[in-house]
Amino acid sequence: MTVTSDRDFAPFMAGVRAAPREAGRLELIVRRPAVDEREVLTEAVLDTTYGLIGDGWHDRGSSRTADGRANPESQITLISTRVLRAIEPDEARWPLAGDQLYVDFDLAQEALPPGSRIAIGSAVLEVSEQPVLCTHSNATALVSHRRNVTDAQIKAVAQQGGVVGVHLWSPIQDRTKPTLDELVGHVRYMADLVGPQYVGFGILNRDQSYLRWSAGAGRDLIRTTDEPDGVSYRRGLEMFIERLDKAGFSQDDVRGILGENYLRVFRQNLPEDSPVYWDYRRGGEE
């Protein structure tokens, strides 16, 4: 699945937030008999041992279980069609997402915490404790904004082994000083609260190239005396790493924050034939 860099998600957000919580609708069933193969079904049988009958989940096994057998925590995967529509408007391409059940239903963690049960037809699914990502969010305790996350939310994500990704974006930082130092303050706060292994880095959208996608990005550029018009992405990232080092984070902590914490969740959460999962996994082996 390809996501274009100029996709505007704003028009979809109200619809995503309005997803039903009490009663939803199953809109698509996809079976994955083998890697890179998809079959769209009009009905399916769910089995407590084999998962979706005819799907490759059981026979494929998992590298995340001690005996290599299929991971029961990822037996059936669901995806919100409201979220998917924002990512890929072409419904013919939806099966490429790699999930099995495509639903018009609120799948947010606060709506469906681990242990919640969902009835689909005569089957009942239980939400597992697989880790989740809360990307592009800073700490509400430092800056109150609806996009930021509370201490309770940060702890809930960490308890499931997930990651909260801080984001360099002035609306969710201190508007009087939305700097790299202030962003590292959010990292420090979260790391002190739950540990650096549960903190990630969203994106550094403050270089000149980002201006073509966001007219308001100019006020967020990282400027220095030598580069008053804004530093390059690479230099901005170097400056972020330097500040993490000064804040007392170890090299292992920094590697985790910059990407390895995310990769851990990708490997635990995504289907093994997912393009994103496979590309990262292959990259780690080379």
Write the layout of secondary structure elements.
Blueprint: H1 10-17, E1 25-31, E2 39-41, E3 46-47, E4 51-52, H2 57-60, E5 78-80, H3 81-87, E6 101-104, E7 117-120, E8 123-126, E9 133-134, H4 151-159, E10 163-166, H5 180-194, E11 199-201, H6 233-246, H7 251-269, H8 275-285
Parallel strand pairs: 5-6, 9-10, 10-11
Antiparallel strand pairs: 1-2, 1-6, 3-4, 7-8
Helix pairs in contact: 1-3
Report what the structure shows.
With 286 residues, the chain is an alpha/beta fold. The protein has two domains: 10-129, no CATH class; 133-267, TIM Barrel, CATH 3.20.20. 30% of the residues lie in helices and 13% in strands. The protein has helices spanning 10-17, 57-60, 81-87, 151-159, 180-194, 233-246, 251-269, 275-285; strands at residues 25-31, 39-41, 46-47, 51-52, 78-80, 101-104, 117-120, 123-126, 133-134, 163-166, 199-201. The chain has a four-stranded mixed sheet with strand order 2-1-6-5. Strand 3 (46-47) and strand 4 (51-52) form a beta hairpin. It is elongated and about 65 Å long.
